[in-house]
Amino acid sequence: MNSNEGLKPSARFKPITKTDLFSGKGSIKIWDLKAQREAGPFKASLWCELEAGGQIGRHHQEHCDEIVLCLSGFGTATIGHECFGLEPGVQVFLKQGQLLSIKAGTQQSLIYLIIKA
Length: 117
Known about the structure:
The protein has strands at 16-19, 27-32, 44-50, 55-60, 66-72, 75-79, 82-86, 91-94, 99-104, 110-116. It is mainly beta.
């Protein structure tokens, strides 16, 4: 059993599922927690669940600075050429224009929040 099984946002939020995002591999479910509501300087608040062994391919942060906050699971975030271990409570910060890729560990899905400002 996944130790993060059941960790999901409120049922009022509906996920979209993407596959091989940014030339990565595997599927990711994304819940838009901000939707169309005004939220000050914040452009997006996304709850993400990347399947075990999945990867979000390397891509530029084109429009916003970003925080990635790990909620559950284990994995890595690579910013530029620097690799950071992800585990619950760890966050990484990206400036607009930086390159990011994320990889989930093989044992369970990786659940994280993305906050863009």
